[in-house]
Design brief:
The chain has 292 residues and is an alpha/beta fold. Helix content is 40%, strand content 17%. It binds guanine (GUN).
Length: 292
């Protein structure tokens, strides 16, 4: 029988702790932590993510602001907003929601974010410090995955972890975090050009899937008793649902779950922890700024 790594309830618990801590500060007369977001264009998934960020910010007592722009905004205009937020002493952290529209160089934009406010942990300084094990903002989704493994006391030391997907946002940083001292996994990194992928994924004690393809991982690719972390979230049209869609992960849960010891559901697995990690990073920035 598999057990669920319940991201939803874990997120509620951590948000309650953050809310209590923030209440303590504001009751002392300090301002609330402030998380801002820049949202460009009308991508549905990005809008959902930013709306969830706003809702969660309010739940924990943070100030939240969103700078919305049409897809036609120039890179220069975006850089000006980033400069403004970098200099605003009352903004503790901000994110630029990705992906950005074609024609805007994402790395240029990310490089303009002050590392001290880069609560997504995407700037070269933060990623470099993460690899060195120095103080930094750890990217939200990888941090959330580590939080879930810790919360459920999943043994990681010496375990073989196979990461599927090599994105800058998830695969690359999570592979680094899981192999570092203290977590101590032996990590294999796989991607779209990997040969004999199933042979490798079948060797995983812990399988982290962030490949961005609905139901890509099937039962024959998973070892009996594995821990499976599904980072994917895809809206699939479904006329039988009131919403008109259903959500699928990168893992075919209908056949994989029964092979697992632990598995993250979709939705309600990794997703809620990503937002919580962003709140934790913003609180970390706030405490540094306020000398707490
Ligand atoms: N797009 C998908 N995931 C993320 C994320 O964690 N942060 C930002 N800024 N954009 C994203």
């Amino acid at each position: 029988m598999f057990q669920l790594l319940d991201g939803k309830n874990t997120a509620i618990e951590i948000k309650n702790q953050i809310a209590n801590e923030v209440r303590g500060y504001t009751q002392r007369g300090l301002r609330a932590p402030h998380l801002a977001a820049i949202l460009v264009g009308d991508d549905g998934a990005s809008q959902t993510y930013v709306a969830n960020k706003e809702k969660s910010s309010h739940e924990v007592g943070f100030t939240s602001s969103v700078y919305r722009y049409s897809a036609g905004i120039s890179e220069q205009q975006l850089l000006e907003t980033i400069d403004f937020l970098n200099k605003d002493d009352e903004v503790d952290g901000f994110i630029v929601q990705l992906p950005l529209p074609k024609g805007i160089n994402e790395q240029h934009v990310i490089n303009a974010i002050s590392p001290a406010k880069d609560v997504d942990g995407f700037t070269p300084i933060n990623l470099g410090n993460m690899v060195l094990g120095e103080e930094c903002f750890v990217p939200a989704t990888p941090k959330g995955i580590c939080t879930l493994l810790t919360q459920y006391n999943i043994e990681t030391c010496g375990q073989h972890c196979v990461v599927v997907g090599r994105s800058n946002i998830v695969g690359t940083p999570v592979a680094n975090l899981l192999s570092r001292k203290g977590t101590d996994c032996t990590v294999t990194m796989c991607h779209s050009r990997t040969k004999n992928l199933a042979e490798l994924t079948r060797q995983a004690d812990i399988l982290v899937v962030a490949i961005g393809k609905p139901e890509f991982i099937t039962a024959d690719m998973v070892k009996e008793g594995a821990v499976v972390i599904d980072v994917g979230i895809h809206r699939i049209e479904d006329a039988s649902r009131k919403s008109g869609y259903r959500l699928l992960g990168d893992v075919k849960h209908s056949e994989v779950d029964e092979r697992c010891s632990w598995v993250t559901p979709v939705p309600g697995g990794v997703g809620p922890l990503t937002i919580v990690s962003l709140l934790q990073n913003t609180l970390q920035s706030y405490k540094r700024t306020m000398g707490l």
